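#struct-help
A.M.: can someone run this one for me? Single chain, 490 residues.
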Amino acid sequence: ERERKEEEKHAAEERQRKEEEEKERKRKSGKQREAERQAELEKEREKKRQFEKELADVKYESKEEALAAFKAMLAEKCPSHTASWQDMIPLCQYDVRFRALKSTGERKNVFENYITQQQKAHLDRERIRKKQSKEEFIKLLEERGDIVDHKARMRDVAKELSKDERFKMVESERERNDLFEDFVMKLEKAEKERLRAARTENLAAFQVLLGETEGISSKTRWSEVKALIRDDPRFLALEGDDKYRLSAFDDFMAGLARKEAEAKELEREKKRKEEKAQRAALQGMMGELKDKGLLNAKSTWKELEELKEAAEDERMVKFLADQVKAKAQDVFDDFVEELGKKFTSDRHILKDAYKAASELDVLTCGPKGFEDAMRAHEEAKDMAADHIGLFYKELLRLAQEEEAKKERRRQRNIKEFNRLIRKYIERGKLTEESSFEDALEVCKERSAWKDISSEERAELYVKAVEEAKERLKEEKDKKGDRGDSASRSR
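D.P.: on it. Structure tokens below:
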């Protein structure tokens, strides 16, 4: 702040000096101005002669000494951290230290580094000043609690606060307003916390009051209870907060209703035990059906419904009479899921057995042959027949899908092979009389040729040539028909 005021003062003095010089210059006659100009020139020449004489006498022992002298001159003559190189030249040109550094570029670099340091120092001082100003402003707000509370507004208290010099230490009005708003917001938050704590304490006392009041049951309405306790200080302490009273009353009623809920829970527990026994009986029936081979890990609820043995079983009939159908389906789903887990466990053993039977062909062996091959494996010797059957069906389906996929791929490769031969004949790379060996030499690098097995190529080549002949003949006939038609039109 001091530096800023000094700079302003220096600038004002400079402006005043120039104005006075201008006035003086206007008062003097042309002759006087000429005499003064000559005197100024002489003075300038004398100053230059004196400078050259001093310059001849100055010698620096080292580069460091010359640099130190130049920096000392900058510290002495630089007017402010905003000065430019052009500002410095008139101030320093007759100072011998200005020539301590030989080149202009070197002088400018040292000057710019010096100005950068001065600007950084100025920014640091400004930052510290602003921080101290903010801290003093906050202290002012804290001290004036008589007018600054959680409801205060800046426009209402600014006049009174401005009487203190700390108010104006924060120069920006916007920044003052922001600091004030933040301070008031903290006061408002603290006030809310205080009210919340008081309300919590009052609610606890109100719940004690409800417990002490006689004649309240789980069926008593709030209006009746309110009439009984409306004059109690613990009720009045929550004045204006009826929603909190109602919340406490609801909690109290929930406590009274807890006993009824416990009785209902005992009844529900009894029903759960009965249902559990019925579920166990139904699972027993499903286990019997599984042993007979009527259910397995892949069975569906619809299949169970269609089983006569299940529909006529008294355990199923009783369960459906006492429970909803969806619960019976849940029991079935759990049963099948458990079978699925067991099948998944056995499936790992069956996979090992299948790998061991390397000569076994699923597509040709049949269910009986597959089961015999699996039981030949030591770990699968005593495995459930339905698990072996399920595994066989799974492998058979996958094998059939793989065969179908291979056949589709083969037909696609044949189609590409035929297209390749036809295209080469059309382009003249092959002829209708070219042998298989000729085609091999021309097409052997093409993927459509390589994708056909070597055993089939010769036979498919003959067919592809015949097909190409027929197609070329058809195209030729079509062109001839079009030509005849055009002739008739002409």
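A.M.: thanks! The mean pLDDT is 79.
D.P.: also worth noting: The two ends are 107 Å apart (CA to CA).
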